[in-house]
Amino acid sequence: MKPIFLELRHLKTLLALKETGSVSLAAKRVYLTQSALSHQLKLLEEHYGLPLFERKTQPLRFTPAGERLIKLANEILPKVIEAERDLSQVKQGEAGELRIAVECHTCFDWLMPAMDSFRQNWPLVELDIVSGFHTDAVGLLLTHRADWAVVSEIEETTGIIHKPLFSYEMVGLCAKDHPLAHKTVWQAEDFADQTLITYPVPDDMLDLLRKVLHPKGINPIRRTSELTIAIIQLVASKRGIAALPFWAAKPYLDRGYLVARQITEVGLHSNLYAAIREIDAKIAFVDDFYETVKAQSFSTLPGLSVLE
């Protein structure tokens, strides 16, 4: 029998490839160049003398040999993470407080499952969300009214560090029989004579307005709602159109309530980052919460991209 060649990094690579279905996306997920990841996979296949996946399929289709290693990755990696977490708890303690502030209404859709998962591993950490929507989440960190924040832009601030979460696409939404439903791509001008339904936030926090409409001098009639489901209902009843993250709209698209369209030829993409105080960066449970949020998001939300 050949000596053991398989390493944890190989399992992480294969799992990233399985979850993304793409060599280029998997490379970003594990912070390798595409050529470095391809070389790693080639060495694995040469060692075992077996192909691990079919390269001309989209998404990639794993061979039985590849699926066996994916099964191993799913069995081993969670145990490794659990062991490393246990060691961190022994070293730094298991108790603490983590207050979370968010500046996006749709954050709760993916944040709550991550919080539930985190609580199972850190039962002595008091986890809470700072109530309300916050336009200055970083300010809450600086005044110690929050310990972890979700932000959409990086503003260089002394004592604060930002860590990438993910990038996602914003899509235009309208009723199935709306005139704009016949267009596959919406341009800025398509919004000019429409009622735009948004969350009640400042214009500079809405990427559609800041990146697409305002540069063209377009400022449509506005209607606001605090709740995503209320926005969906208003759009479905032809009271206006909206732009929401694809992953937030997908459950309603799958049920046929409305249709989604790409915004501009290049698409409208938004980013999310975690912001924390620099002095807290090495606290074990703070770092583990970040890793939990990222892992939970990529495993459950459709259409995410790695944010470098």
From TrEMBL:
Listed name of the protein: HTH-type transcriptional regulator MetR
Localisation per UniProt entry: Cytoplasm
Swiss-Prot/TrEMBL keywords: Activator, Amino-acid biosynthesis, Cytoplasm, DNA-binding, Methionine biosynthesis, Repressor, Transcription, Transcription regulation
Stored PANTHER family: HTH-TYPE TRANSCRIPTIONAL REGULATOR, HTH-TYPE TRANSCRIPTIONAL REGULATOR METR
GO molecular function: DNA-binding transcription factor activity; transcription cis-regulatory region binding
UniProt-listed InterPro entries: LysR_HTH_N, LysR_subst-bd, MetR_PBP2, WH-like_DNA-bd_sf, WH_DNA-bd_sf
Species this chain originates from: Pasteurella canis
Gene behind this protein: metR
Domain HTH lysR-type: 6-63
